[in-house]
Amino acid sequence: MTSTPLTESELEAWGERLGRILDPPAFVCLRGPLGAGKSVLARAIARGAGVDAEMPSPTFNLVFRYAGAGGKRVVHLDLYRIDDVEEVWELGWEELGAPGEVVLVEWPERAEPLLPPDRYEIALSDAGGDRRAVSLRELGDVAALAEAAGVQGG
Ligand SMILES: Nc1ncnc2c1ncn2[C@@H]1O[C@H](COP(=O)(O)OP(=O)(O)O)[C@@H](O)[C@H]1O
Ligand SMILES: [Mg+2]
């Protein structure tokens, strides 16, 4: 579904809610152009999952791992700098989605053929006036997030 365009604080509130109800293991793709708000949303989802740490942008390191609430772990990846899909193996790609893990991937396009079939797809786009249109799709066998999707309004 696609939402009414959200302000930054609305997007953060939605992401935090999503992070609270996401039941790991969960794999979440965050799509949208540079500056769309993928990192803003990833940090909000992580906060919702109980991460209580500074979350730098992973642009240079590509992968950050955080401890969340109740044994949850959050892995935040930014694949922007991946030139060849095979490079993701060096990032520990094979182990992603272990029990308890919430995996948040910016620029999943870089690893398109290796994305798991069961995943969430979130797309962000500029809707003008500092608002972002947000869409959420569930692919394969994942829990429905209707409750969180409802927060998007519409
Ligand atoms: N409605 C909005 N939602 C998310 N970010 C917004 C919004 N309006 C303005 N911004 C700004 O856009 C930028 C998004 O940056 P970032 O999350 O790093 O983008 P990306 O990771 O997609 O490249 C931030 O500077 C943020 O303050
Ligand atoms: Mg980013």
Structure description:
The chain is of the alpha/beta class and 154 residues long. The protein has one domain: P-loop containing nucleotide triphosphate hydrolases (Rossmann fold). The protein is built from 3 helices and 6 strands, in the order H-E-H-E-E-E-E-E-H. It has helices spanning 8-21, 38-48, 146-151, and strands at residues 26-31, 63-67, 73-78, 101-106, 119-126, 132-139. It has a 6-stranded mixed β-sheet, with helices on one face. A hairpin with a 5-residue loop joins strand 2 and strand 3. The longest helix is centred in the N-terminal third of the chain and has 14 residues, at 8-21. It is globular. Magnesium ion binds next to helix 2.
Assign the CATH topology. Rossmann fold
Number of strands: 6
Question: What is the CATH class designation?
Answer: Alpha Beta
Topology pattern, helix = H, strand = E: HEHEEEEEH
Structural class: alpha/beta
CATH architecture: 3-Layer(aba) Sandwich
Per the principal axes of the C-alpha atoms, what is the gross shape?
globular
Largest sheet: 6 strands, mixed
Provide a quick synopsis of the model.
This protein is an alpha/beta fold. Helices cover 20% and strands 25% of the residues.
Structure keywords:
single chain; 154 residues; alpha/beta; Rossmann fold; globular; binds adenosine-5'-diphosphate; binds magnesium ion
